[in-house]
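User: Could you go from structure to sequence for me? I need the amino acid at each position, not a summary. Structure tokens:
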């Protein structure tokens, strides 16, 4: 296995699950309804739904940066508002998250190892640091989702 494959594997584990640290993004979302996802059980904290669209936004930004777009997200892009808290919209949100993740992994698979140490774009961190940043970002927010689930829906949900 080369370094690109190892990085892609770590991203997949952080997102889909099976990592040694605990549940990945999708594992923490299992069983969450639209009503639960839209809830704000902790004052001042984002909802699960808001965290999901935020994760998707940054995975998309990473992919766009790999493709040469600076992808400097506005506040509205970084934290999109949930305006339709229905089960259909929640299913669409999760499907978009999964599809965006698939596209990011596809972009990573086409990298060369030599590209890892280069800046992703001028005046930005390296490709290696950026991709590992996305992995860390996914895990950070998966932990927040787990806390929100536990807070709102009981310890048995994790």
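Assistant: Here is the amino acid at each position, in order:
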């Amino acid at each position: 296995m080369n370094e690109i494959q190892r990085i892609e594997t770590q991203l997949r584990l952080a997102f889909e699950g099976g990592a040694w640290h605990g549940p990945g993004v999708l594992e923490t979302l299992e069983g969450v309804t639209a009503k639960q996802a839209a809830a704000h059980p902790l004052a001042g904290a984002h909802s699960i739904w808001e965290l999901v669209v935020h994760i998707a936004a940054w995975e998309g930004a990473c992919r766009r940066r790999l493709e040469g777009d600076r992808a400097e997200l506005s506040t509205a892009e970084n934290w999109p508002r949930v305006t339709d808290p229905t089960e259909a919209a929640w299913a669409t949100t999760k499907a978009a998250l999964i599809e965006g993740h698939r596209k990011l992994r596809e972009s990573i698979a086409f990298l060369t190892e030599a590209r890892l140490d280069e800046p992703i774009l001028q005046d930005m961190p390296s490709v290696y640091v950026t991709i590992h940043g996305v992995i860390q970002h996914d895990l950070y927010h998966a932990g927040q989702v787990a806390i929100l689930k536990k807070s709102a829906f009981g310890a048995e949900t994790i």
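One structural detail worth keeping in mind: The chain has one domain: 3-157.
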